[in-house]
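user: can you give me the structure for this one chain? tokens are fine.
assistant: on it. calling the predictor now.
[tool input]
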Amino acid sequence: MIPDGTSTSLLSIARWYLHYQDSTQNNLNIDPYIRGLLGTCSSDAPIGDSAPTTSCYMTGQPSQTGFISTYPVKTDHDLFPIDATRAYQPLATLLEASKQMLHKSTGLVFTCEFPHATPADCAAHTYNRGSYKTIAPQMVHNLVDVVIGGGVSYLLPEYQDFLKEHGYQVFLDDKQGMLNCDKAPFWALFNESSMPYEIERDPKTTPSLAEMTRKAIQMLASDPNGFFLMVEGSKVDWAAHDNDGKNALLEFIEFDKACKEALNFANKDGQTLVVIVPDHGTGAVTIGNAKSNHGYDKLSLNQIMSSFEDYKLPTWSMSEKLKEVETSEWPALFEKYYNVQITNADIEYLQSARDYNKSPMPKEQRKGNISLTKMLSQFLYGRTYFGFTTFGHTIENVFYAMYHPQNEVLTGYVTNIQLHEYLCDQLHLTDSLSKLTSEIYVDHHKVFENYTTRIDSLAPNHYKLVVKNKKNTLEADSYTNFITVNKKKIELPSIIVYMHRNNTFYLPKNLNQYLK
């Protein structure tokens, strides 16, 4: 379970906020299970990007910014030994190994759009995390049993048809359909892209992260072989990137409720491991800023928490509203959504945002400024006691929490690699992922060393490998789980990945048997 971008200090803020709301509440659901701190990084940078940080949890290999469960490129500043000959090789993930080697059911739950970095790290491979058109088909063809989250617009009609042909039910913006579903496999997606922030969510039409987690567990737990489930609280990170303190806080509290669902199940089940860990910190959020330089030790809990209590809208959503209107309409919006009276000086400051196109200030003068969302956060949270050091990620160690039925848990300080090794050990997959990688993600030049090959570009992001030997022809479509041999379709247990950077297909090494 991954609360993306959660700085450890956010846990302190969340505990105090819960106590502020209800004086009998002092703890998070995860508190009894917190075990220590974890170091997370990329292969060549101490401050990690979401794609390679979760990749390391999934594969054991630190990688680079933008790389989704893919071996990194060697640089002159690597933090770990890197084998240059393996650059761009897809790396088998814990989800793929759980499915293919242990025959477990698999699931993904998240609040971002489904091809986003963290869910993609479990079931796709690329060096470009933004390449949704190559990530989405991989996630579909990897045949994950339960997928619940955002991204209706990315599940194209042909992907829906493929899933239905393979026995899946598909629910699009259909909360009741999902809740009434009585068996896997299924996909349930909400919203065109990411799901709304918790503060904006309509509970009638959109499930909470806790509801999605509960449903996924219910559907997966019936498998006698067990299951692998990744749950991401995706938008803690998004709010923290915007320095939107209240919404980072509320997103984390909702994630903590999802953790309660998993922990309650695991405690009753007696056979399930739960691991809770962020992929990195974002923003370095604190309670304590320039406003509290003096008198910080005299501030009451009510003074601290009430300073943002009237904030009813994420700053991203507010900035979208502000962009649609002239500045003359701004005061009414600020009063409605934040109970803040803005001055002409405030308006002059905010209209200098680089992306406010209705600004009377020429675009050239605004070019170097930050976005309206971020300027809005600075303006609003400067009135509170929230503090941030950056709009980006941070080098800090993150917390980790664990439940194990026999209490076989890690403690103290560990690294991302050590966490992966622990997970492999618990799944009895020690050394198995590297073996699986060497079997299913092999350079096509090695697989078909003695055969004639060519790569056809059929359309943007659609490539076909054609291999010929005498009268036999094998064709492999990029980002699918099937090949055709002499026009006969053969489904594979793994996906086929094409890497444009090195013009290479990666596929199972045993495929040459079809040409002999």
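assistant: here you go. Residues 42 and 326 are 43 Å apart (CA to CA). The first strand starts at residue 2 and ends at 3.
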